[in-house]
Design a protein that fits this description.
Arylsulfatase, C-terminal domain; 5-stranded antiparallel β-sheet; 493 residues; Alkaline Phosphatase, subunit A; 16% strand; 8-stranded mixed β-sheet; 15 helices; globular; 13 strands
Length: 493
């Protein structure tokens, strides 16, 4: 059963102080690195001019591919019986596959901000899809550009438009997603191919490509859809967001559920093709073996796992919080290895800097993923946190009801996971033992109060001793056109 209680006064003040100082020190160290290398300021807006190239100033190219809303358990490499993703399966044979990668947030913008800055949402300031990156937080693109790297980003949704601040450091940032507020993977890929083909092979590149599939609406290409649809069901667009909301209100029928799940698998098939095209592009360029390639989802998706179906953002169960992550190191080093240690989005930036040979930088929540390959025990001792929205309608079984407009947080330590939601006068939580209940069906708060307290203390430390941060999300950075765009993608009603 879930447990509710009021916030108590006890705090580990030393841990809290260190946690807050770590975030500040990382930002300060990164700013010093930028200034020392290139005299770079971080107040850029819009596309930046190309740097003066220094041939092979960096030993490797870096390519980051993010897949929006992709559940790990719909991929064969994570045990799914249907062949939804042959290209990712092939890539896994030359990559390191991480079995317990966790999202920084189950929202798109905050998770991407953590990937591109190496810090947590409370450190970079993007807590929801309506947020904007704090001006003083350096990005990976800024750091690499300061070393003579050519930088470009190509995104497929308005949730990553330049209003988020994530364009900083990119000489090209293509967020032209059109009137639908989303862009199909082939169109985004064509823009990326055009840019990369014009860059001499001697110049190091950082290429960031974001694909929106398999985000709702699930409307895959017909050939992908036919592979998974029930017999007699023809490919067709998914219901609109208003229609989906009406279906939730009346209750989905089992045939409707199966068709929507099949369409989701078709979208996985479609984005897998896009990943295959990225690999082909790198092979044609002759750069695959000198590239650090990271392929990761920003978050997952709840299908029919819970009462509130076909959505994400406010349920912190593993179908949303646990993500696929493949890292192909240069020359396919460690290819075929699998890592069981829990890792997170904030580990990506430290990994890139480590592989490129930068001196170790202080990162508050992130470490290089190469530590996992060395069997570094620190990974097993970390408490990792995933954030989401606090919305009572998505978790109707919780009492007292979660507070609307706040933030929910899941803290994971080993096999234990505590999900905390603010309420009107305190909080409500669920503790799960993932070894015995991997689908998170039965909360064990009542029988394990010591574990609830221990994980709650770890969350307090992560919050810097300020549990009130969960009660109010950051003020939105929205213009009317932004609201219309997010509404069209189902984020607002």
């Amino acid at each position: 059963m879930p447990t509710s209680h009021r916030d108590g006064p006890s705090r580990d003040r030393l841990l809290n102080y260190r946690n807050m100082q770590a975030g500040r020190n990382f930002v300060a160290a990164s700013l010093a690195l930028l200034a020392g290398l290139a005299g770079l300021t971080t107040a850029a807006a819009g596309a930046d001019p190309a740097p003066t190239p220094t041939p092979r100033a960096l030993p490797y190219d870096v390519v980051l591919v993010t897949l929006d809303t992709l559940r790990r358990d719909r991929l064969p490499i994570y045990g799914y019986p249907l062949d939804t993703a042959p290209n990712l399966s092939a890539l896994a044979r030359s990559s390191v596959v991480f079995d317990n990668a966790l999202a920084a947030s189950v929202r798109t913008t905050p998770s991407h901000a953590s990937m591109l800055t190496g810090v947590t949402p409370f450190d970079h300031g993007v807590l929801l899809n309506k947020g904007r990156l704090n001006d003083g937080v350096p990005t990976l693109a800024e750091i690499l550009k300061s070393r003579g790297c050519r930088t470009a980003g190509f995104v497929s949704s308005v949730t990553l438009s330049r209003r988020t601040g994530l364009e900083r450091g990119f000489e090209v940032y293509d967020d032209d997603v059109g009137a639908t507020q989303e862009r199909p993977a082939p169109e985004t890929l064509a823009r990326a191919r055009e840019w990369l083909s014009a860059i001499p092979a001697a110049e190091p590149v950082f290429l960031f490509v974001h694909f929106f599939e398999p985000h709702y609406p699930y409307s895959p290409p017909a050939d992908c859809a036919r592979r998974f649809l029930p017999a007699g069901e023809a490919p067709a667009p998914s219901p609109s967001f208003p229609e989906l909301h009406a279906m939730r209100a009346r209750g989905f029928t089992r045939p409707e559920i199966e068709v929507l799940k099949a369409r989701y698998d078709g979208e996985v098939c479609a984005v897998d093709r896009a990943v295959g095209e990225v690999l082909r592009l790198l092979r044609e360029r002759g750069s695959l073996e000198r590239t650090l390639l990271l392929v990761v989802a920003d978050h997952g998706e709840t299908l029919d796992d819970r009462v509130w179906m076909f959505d994400h953002g406010a349920q912190l169960y593993d179908e949303q919080a646990r993500v696929p992550l493949l890292v192909r190191f240069p020359n396919a080093a460690h290819g075929g290895d699998r890592v069981a240690a829990a890792v997170t989005h904030v580990d990506l930036l430290p990994t890139v800097l480590d592989v490129l040979g930068f001196k170790p930088q202080l990162a508050p929540g992130g470490v290089s993923l190469t530590a996992a390959l060395r069997g570094d025990l620190v990974l097993g001792r970390r408490a990792l946190v995933t954030l989401g929205s606090s919305e009572a309608r998505q978790v109707p079984h919780l009492r007292p009801a979660p507070l609307e407009g706040g933030l929910a947080a899941a803290v994971r330590l080993g096999a234990l996971k505590l999900v905390v939601y603010p309420t009107a006068d305190g909080e409500v939580s669920e503790l799960f033992d993932l070894d015995h209940d991997p689908r998170e069906q039965v909360a064990v708060n009542g029988s394990r109060p010591a574990d609830v307290h221990r994980l709650r203390r770890r969350l307090d430390a992560w919050l810097g001793g300020r549990p009130e941060l969960l009660r109010t999300a950051a003020a939105p950075y929205l213009e009317p056109r932004d609201e219309d765009a997010l509404r069209s993608l189902g984020y607002l009603e």
